[in-house]
Amino acid sequence: MDEMSQIVSEIDIESRRLRIINAVVASVDQPPGSQVGPRLQRHVQMLLIHSGSMKVVIDERPPYEVHAGHMCILLPGHREEISFPHKMTRQTLLRGDFLGLTAGMAEWLESVPPVRKLSSALTYLAREALTSEQTRLTAQGALVDALSTALLWRFIAELENSPAALPEPIEAARLFIHQLLSEELTLSAIASAANVTPAYLVRLFREHMGTTPIHYLWERRVTHGIVLLTSTGLPIGTVAAMSGFKTSFHFARKVKESTGMAPSELRRSNWGELSAHSSSDANRRI
After folding, report:
1. Is 122:103 a contact under the CB 8 Å cutoff?
2. DSSP string, 89-123
3. Cα 191 to Cα 198: distance, rounded to the nearest angstrom
4. Which residue in 86, 95, 107, 134 is a FRET match for 146, CA 20 to 30 A apart?
5. In the prediction, which pLDDT does 63 show?
6. pLDDT tens digits, 155-166
7. How far does Cα 121 stand from its chain's mean position?
8. Is the Cβ–Cβ distance between 165 and 117 less than 8 Å?
């Protein structure tokens, strides 16, 4: 076990309480030639690069580049300068403040590589945070704080356990699926994004995940649809389209297969329970 893994494996109970508060999340497009800074970083920032690239200079250290498909973490207390030299760069930005950062964890975070290749889990957590912000499903910021904290700990966990990660083609395929969930995707397109043949990708998914790429795609679509259905007031047709379904009928059939209820029933059951509790509370107050 190398020194870095040993430090992470021996995180004490105080270090485990580390979380991010006052988090904000946004989707940002940076045009080529634009620049951020020089500035003093006062927060922790996590940047997921979906297209394009950025060049980062921290203090007097050598510059490094963050390319599409990677995540970068910027720590507070450093002078930094960021430039976008080549083309339009699309990114998801999460920013917040550390709460419960111990000296040991601060030292470890300063010692590890600040850039990591995006996994589907990192992308999913950032996407959920962004969706929560966009739909204002934030619980007065608590949900975005929790998702940002989960993203940070996922980043830490992947650094600690990188040898146990899924094969790269699976992670590339899952990332492609998560990023383009609402688009029309084929097995060939997913395999092409993973740089393998469709047959090989199917074998990998069956061996490591017990499913197929297309079945995984539809599971993610149904799950995303159910979240939007039960957590927002968006029309069912809009939820279906945002989840990658061509028709509301197909969406309704898949939701019923998964939950035993039609979309409208599922929404009423979630909202109806709340209404029933509210009515009961009101009756007790009368």
Report:
1. no
2. EEEEEEEEEEES--HHHHHHHHHS-SEEEPPHHHH
3. 5
4. 107
5. 92
6. 988 877 664 567
7. 6
8. no
The CA distance from 242 to 240, in Å, is 6
Summarize the chain as % helix, strand, coil (round to 5).
50, 20, 25
The pLDDT value given to residue 12: 66
Give the model's pLDDT for residue 11.
Answer: 61
Between the two ends of the chain, the Cα-to-Cα distance in Å is 65
Low-confidence ranges of the chain (pLDDT < 50): 1-9, 163, 274-286
Return the exposure string of 136-153: e unless at least 16 CB atoms fall within 10 Å of the residue's CB, then b.
eebeebebbbbbbbbbbe
Q: Which two tokens stand for residue 242?
A: 């945002």
CA distance linking residue 145 with residue 150, whole number of Å? 9
Which uninterrupted H or E stretch holds 156? Answer: helix 142-160
Report residue 66 as tokens: 């963050």
**185: its two tokens:** 């995707």
pLDDT score, position 203:
95
pLDDT in tens, 215-268: 999 999 999 999 888 888 889 999 999 999 999 999 999 999 999 999 999 888
> d(Cα 51, Cα 70) in Å, to the nearest integer?
9
Tell me which residue has tokens 């508060």. 21
Instruction: Specify the DSSP class assigned to residue 60.
Output: T
Q: Is the peptide bond before 38 cis (omega within 30 degrees of 0)?
A: yes
Instruction: Give me the pLDDT at residue 118, please.
Output: 87
* Cis peptide bond upstream of 113, omega within 30: no
State the chain's maximal CA–CA distance in angstroms: 69
